[in-house]
Design a protein that fits this description.
2 strands
């Protein structure tokens, strides 16, 4: 009997002002823990926003971030 296709969800994370990398990291650990038993896969990508983006890219909402979330 063929296996059903596994659904994959792409999630862009934006750790920055207010919700820092430590919070995002733990939230993604929880999501990954429930994904497999629930029958789906999480594909994540992290982009800069806010103060971290100003430090890293010179702008609070860089073009790469904008393109990833649109």
């Amino acid at each position: 009997m063929p296996m059903a296709a596994t659904r994959t969800y792409r999630i862009v994370t934006l750790p920055g002002d207010g919700i820092g990398p430590d919070v995002i990291r733990e939230a993604m650990r929880v999501l990954q823990a429930v994904a497999k038993p629930a029958g789906f896969v999480i594909d994540t990508a992290e982009y800069l926003i806010g103060g971290a983006a100003i430090d890293g890219a010179g702008h609070p909402y860089p073009d790469a971030t904008r393109a990833a979330v649109l």
